[in-house]
Amino acid sequence: MNIQVQLLEENSIRRFKIVGEIDAFTAPVLKERLASAGQEHGLTAELDLSEVDYMDSTGLGIFVGFYKTIKSNGGQLKITGVNKRLKRLFEITGLDEVMDIETGEGGDNDATV
Q1: 99: exposed, middle or buried (C-beta count within 10 Å: 0-12, 13-18, 19+)?
Q2: What distance in Å separates the CA atoms of residue 102 and residue 82, rounded to the nearest whole number?
Q3: How does pLDDT run across 44-76, given as a tens digit for each residue?
Q4: What is the CA angle 23-24-29, rounded to 5?
Q5: pLDDT tens digits, residue range 23-51?
Q6: Is the pLDDT assigned to residue 5 strictly greater than 50?
Q7: In the predicted structure, residue 1 carries a pLDDT above the cut 80
Q8: At what angle are helices 57-72 and 84-93 packed, to 10 degrees?
Q9: Residue 92, Cβ neighbours under 10 Å: how many?
Q10: In sequence order, which residues have a C-beta less than 8 Å from that of residue 19 and are 6 or more positions away?
């Protein structure tokens, strides 16, 4: 499975629309796309996961690294469109207590994790 990362800039917010699966095979592409933006001072970024079908611990690691980079550069990160199963991953790891995470509309998108 492939992953697509689309970047939209709106009102000084960088919105990354992520589509597909996030695992050990696709994670390097995602990491590369996020890394270039994360170095910007005061960046406000939003990651839309509403079309992510699957994510493993590799994906969580990418998001933790991106979060730390943004925070250390005085920025903010919001993760949106998280389905019930992905939300559970963030809860189990305690990341939902640290990161700003929003569930998707209706929250019924049950992707396999």
Answers
A1: middle
A2: 6
A3: 999 999 999 899 999 999 999 999 999 999 999
A4: 85
A5: 999 999 999 999 888 778 888 999 999 99
A6: yes
A7: no
A8: 70
A9: 10
A10: 3, 4, 5, 6, 51, 52
pLDDT at 38: 78
Report H helices in 4-111.
27-38, 57-72, 84-93
CB atoms within 10 A of CB 2: 9
**CB-based contacts of 55: which residues, under 8 Å, 6+ apart?**
21, 22, 23, 49, 86, 89, 111, 113
What 3-state class would DSSP assign to 35? helix
Q: Nearest to residue 18, comparing CAs of 44, 69, 58, 53?
A: 53
* Bridge pairing between strands 44-55 and 76-82: parallel
Query: Residue 14: which of 50, 49, 59, 47 has the closest Cα?
Result: 47
